[in-house]
Amino acid sequence: MSSFTIPLDEGNRSVSVPVNTLNDLSKDDLLSFPAFQIWLSTLQRSLQRQHHPSHEFNHNPYVLRKINVQSVDYFKSGRLGFVKLNAEVSNGNGETLPGTVFLRGGSVGMLMILQPDDVPSSNEDEKRAILTIQPRIPAGSLAFPEIPAGMIDDSGTFAGAAAKEIEEETGLTIPQRELVDMTSLALQSISEPKDGETLQRAVYPSPGGSDEFIPLFLCQKRMPRKEIESLQGRLTGLRQHGEKITLKIVPLKDLWKEALRDGKTLAAWALYNGLKQDGKI
């Protein structure tokens, strides 16, 4: 076991938070891990907000007292990939908040809608959506249906990551400018306080246990009907990275039924329909 401390700004003072780790994870490696950086800064902002008199916890604020790193996983490249930790968060009365966290960082999801170019663009019935069918061992599945998605790497933009994943998983090349960030667009429709929490402009599929956040993008493309049909059953993915993906083309109106077990697909479906109803897309 190794131990070190990390600085934390509590608003009116700076404190040192002890970190214990059961492996050889160094302080520098942890502090340079993007997922940890985002999680810690977001939590720090939320804890600071307790000092406002109107905050629910103002009379007895919660404090991050210790972080216990329980396990880490590295990618084949040697880059830190995942961290499981327990954050001890409690108030002056000893009341605690659940703090088991699986850090993996952000991903992107893409709702890809294709329409034959031999029908009017207003024809909703002819619109098709792309699903990927692939093994998802954490779900115990070898054929899990979902919209195209992938992890965000350490560089580039969310839109760039989305365009990259679209090409890798579908074989289609889509310019970034043709992608619509549905989560950011939807957030423009609601009023958020300037001193509110600094959550990512994304959906959080499992906030009770993971930091993962997913900006959801929309791409609508008109193509020759035969090209759309040729995508059905196509094998794609980066085989050298263990990706074994089969494409499935489904009517857009049936998307929610075809991939109802996948949270990001349902979120993308809801955002698309909500934004369309409001005339945003």
TrEMBL record:
**Cofactor(s) named in the record:** Mg(2+)
User: Record's superkingdom?
Assistant: Eukaryota
Among InterPro entries, the record links this protein to: NUDIX_hydrolase-like_dom_sf, NUDIX_hydrolase_dom
What Pfam families would the database entry show? NUDIX (PF00293)
Under the heading Gene3D superfamilies, the entry gives: Nucleoside Triphosphate Pyrophosphohydrolase (3.90.79.10)
**Keyword Cytoplasm annotated:** no
Alphabetized GO MF terms: ADP-glucose pyrophosphohydrolase activity; ADP-ribose pyrophosphohydrolase activity
GO BP, sorted A to Z: nucleoside phosphate metabolic process; ribose phosphate metabolic process
Say if the entry is tagged with keyword Membrane. Answer: no
Where do the Nudix hydrolase domain residues begin and end? 103-273
Entry keywords, A to Z: Hydrolase
- Identification of the protein by name: Nudix hydrolase domain-containing protein
Q: Which organism is it from?
A: Aspergillus turcosus
The taxonomic lineage of its organism, from the top, reads: Eukaryota, Fungi, Dikarya, Ascomycota, Pezizomycotina
